[in-house]
Fold this sequence. Notes:
The complex is a heterodimer of chains A (257) and B (299).
Chain A: E1 6-15, E2 23-33, E3 38-43, H1 49-57, E4 64-69, E5 72-73, H2 79-82, E6 86-89, H3 103-111, H4 128-136, H5 155-167, E7 173-177, H6 185-201, E8 206-209, H7 213-218, E9 222-227, E10 230-236, H8 237-241, H9 245-251
Parallel strand pairs in A: 3-8, 3-9, 6-7, 7-8
Antiparallel strand pairs in A: 1-2, 1-4, 4-5, 9-10
Helix pairs in contact in A: 3-5, 5-6
Chain B: H1 2-28, H2 35-51, H3 56-79, H4 85-104, E1 108-110, H5 121-124, H6 130-151, H7 154-164, H8 166-171, H9 176-202, E2 204-206, H10 213-228, H11 233-256, H12 264-276, H13 278-285, H14 287-295
Helix pairs in contact in B: 1-6, 1-9, 1-10, 1-11, 2-3, 2-4, 2-9, 3-4, 3-9, 7-9, 10-11, 10-12, 11-12
Amino acid sequence: xxxxxxxxxxxxxxxxxxxxxxxxxxxxxxxxxxxxxxxxxxxxxxxxxxxxxxxxxxxxxxxxxxxxxxxxxxxxxxxxxxxxxxxxxxxxxxxxxxxxxxxxxxxxxxxxxxxxxxxxxxxxxxxxxxxxxxxxxxxxxxxxxxxxxxxxxxxxxxxxxxxxxxxxxxxxxxxxxxxxxxxxxxxxxxxxxxxxxxxxxxxxxxxxxxxxxxxxxxxxxxxxxxxxxxxxxxxxxxxxxxxxxxxxxxxxxxxxx
Amino acid sequence: xxxxxxxxxxxxxxxxxxxxxxxxxxxxxxxxxxxxxxxxxxxxxxxxxxxxxxxxxxxxxxxxxxxxxxxxxxxxxxxxxxxxxxxxxxxxxxxxxxxxxxxxxxxxxxxxxxxxxxxxxxxxxxxxxxxxxxxxxxxxxxxxxxxxxxxxxxxxxxxxxxxxxxxxxxxxxxxxxxxxxxxxxxxxxxxxxxxxxxxxxxxxxxxxxxxxxxxxxxxxxxxxxxxxxxxxxxxxxxxxxxxxxxxxxxxxxxxxxxxxxxxxxxxxxxxxxxxxxxxxxxxxxxxxxxxxxxxxxxx
Lengths: 257, 299
């Protein structure tokens, strides 16, 4: 058995502490992520999917519990430090890119994710060939728009760029937060296919929140369902491969397809 | 003629203030009110340093540092103290008034018989008012070149990204707090530097000379943008200085119409308001269309 690359141990996040509205939005969550895991995450609104990602990313502090990276405690590590091993793509295409900077400038920024940035010149030109090659993988014309301000791209191109920015420097853990949800169905499918290609080809360890049951079934080697701040189902391997949509629907009734 | 040369000289000197404000107002997207305190602080620090025997060059650098320290305080209040940036700036601006009085020991100080950067053989050998033009060009060129270089470094790109999308910047491991503190520091340093040069130009520092500075600096930025339209970052920096000179011409014109110096702040505000409303006015009255028509021959 391989060691987990990343672990959540008995994580509790309490909000409105000490008031009548006190509630655990993360309720004793345990999760061990193994190298190469591609985990799809389902759950209704308010189930704790975003909270889970914010706990992993360090955006919200945990009330109790432990977060381990390769066995080392990183529970109190800052958001900025965690970006050394962690990258994230958000649902909103506007969240992941700098609109007034060009595509190439955005890529250059992301190449130094988690690293020191000093007074050395940025050397944009020497990176252009590499950027052209990387962007052409997405099959959506991004490679012809390297010098375009990101704000002028289509939502699909912008989100494809966000994905590339999250993976250009290989992350130990990649978090995809419904990254295709804001796109039209066709663009969404294209980006999802490209995403899956990249993840499987590069053996990335990835957690992906999705609202699409089909995507959750089709992609990844493991599926977890969140409900009321708890992980209610966690299946992987053959068991996941043989899972049908009907069975999955039985896991929870109030999620919309 | 000499009045135009004088306007260019003032425009160049105030261009430094415009460039300083550009860093916060346009790049970080901050309305930083600290400038109304750091501009006279730079002037006060420079004049006080000259009084205590420092060379004008050293005194001017001290003004930069004084402005920068005030900007750092605003940055700390905003990032670590979680005070909204507008209010943080107003707090430091208000406090700066007292600090400036402490620095000078009185409300104003004259440089009448003191050395300044303008009082040397070369600059004094030039025709009237050309001294401030030459000094202005040199300082603006140095400042612009340094900022242009900085913005092309990895740190500079992180700084731009922080202003453009702080969430993304943080997710790439950029310490947005550090970038914002640095931006406010450098910005206010440049504004202090501008205050020092204006004080040496005018021959005095006054504790009230900060009133309206933000409007003048904003006018430089906005006029440059309205006149030149879409530009690259480097071109925009240069456009600020040109906008600053154009602003001086507009003021000159208005004064020629019979207004006097007491009306200046009113005029500044109106000029800025008009330029900021330009996109709306243009849509409504088709200004560009009319201008273009006025430039072509009758057929």
